[in-house]
Amino acid sequence: KNVLVKRLWLQETMASVSSSSLLNKAVRQQYMGLGQGGKCQVTYIWVDGTGEGLRNKTRTLDSEPTCIEEIPEWNFDGSSTYQAEGSNSDMYLIPVRMFRDPFTLDPNKLVLCEVLKYNRLPAETNHRHSCNQVMQQVKDHCLWFGMEQEYTLLGVDGHPFSWPSKGFPAPQGPYYCGVGANHAYGRDVVECHYKACLYAGIQICGTNAEVMPSQWEFQVGPCEGIEMGDHLWVARFLLHRVCEDFGVVATLDPKPITGNWNGAGCHTNVSTQQMREEEGLKYIELAIEKLGKKHKQHIEVYDPRGGKDNMRRLTGLHETSSINDFSAGVANRGASIRIPRQVGKDKRGYFEDRRPAANCDPYTVTMAIAQTCLLDPT
Ligand code: ADP
Ligand code: MN
Ligand code: MN
Ligand code: MN
């Protein structure tokens, strides 16, 4: 009977893992070790028309580019990415930031791109363009961000990774920063993603297991201005790509499992030069006051569906604030804005906006914060 149970379990596990992840990875090594005759593979990455999905395609350059200016513009078929307007389906890819490719290794590159339409205006979901304009306006403030990306691992069948196929795991409690096969589900993905980010040149600064089993977080930052969105989008690309190798899927849905299970956010930490200097706390308090006046407008840009996604997450339970109320407090994880305890003590540092959903666009989030805190009248 035991053998039968084990076989059934194995069958279920195999069904929840993608078949391409079961291809022989040792055979792959033979080809990955081949020389490439001085040529360079460059993978262009962009945000598609959903504002959440990432797309990529690869081309050969004759030599290794030494800076972003050496990577040529390219194009793609926008009618296949929910991006084309009418019969003009060609979209432009404008390289904006270059990273090392941790999958095919040096000298190959990953390059994040902005998308322009046939008339060379930014595509609807190209929020980098306007974000960059705001970041230019506030650049004297030396605005730093750090974002905490939470995500949940699923099988390709959409079921949370390694949860029992019927029923639920034991209630939340032992999983946050947990260790052991009964507490930490899928650590291989987390560790490989971390290494891939460091190799690529992402400003990743940490990682931890989250409150719900199979839920994890990595942190990127501090990054100045537009770099925040650039680094987080490419870190997300690396996450999806690493998951592909393991045959599992990472979802950024802000509330993947309803009920007594934590949702997933993208806490955004913020500081200006003034906030980081002595007695900076008064500038933090001023920024919070301004944020309080624009709560609704911020909620609208803190997920890709104008607040609808975040509504499932910001309930006032599970370490969140209610979506309808604005609140702030020192060390308060049930508030919209938290001032970390150390910052309260030192009277300088940064604050944390806990409202952005895991699937937010970091460009719209950082742009809204910069606009409200630094460009709005007092
Ligand atoms: P939490 O206690 O909220 O879980 P984490 O350690 O997960 O905090 O994340 C802290 C985040 O704050 C990181 O992304 C880090 O880069 C960022 N951070 C640290 N110092 C600053 C600062 N001065 N300005 C902006 N962001 C900062
Ligand atoms: Mn965190
Ligand atoms: Mn967290
Ligand atoms: Mn946090």
From TrEMBL:
PROSITE patterns referenced in this protein's UniProt entry, alphabetically: GLNA_1, GLNA_ATP, GS_BETA_GRASP, GS_CATALYTIC
Location of the GS catalytic domain: 127-378
EC numbers, comma separated: 6.3.1.2
Subcellular location: Cytoplasm
GO CC annotation terms, alphabetical: cytoplasm
Residues annotated as domain GS beta-grasp: 40-120
Record SUPFAM superfamilies: Glutamine synthetase, N-terminal domain (SSF54368), Glutamine synthetase/guanido kinase (SSF55931)
GO biological processes: glutamine biosynthetic process
Classification via PANTHER family: GLUTAMINE SYNTHETASE
Protein name, per record: Glutamine synthetase
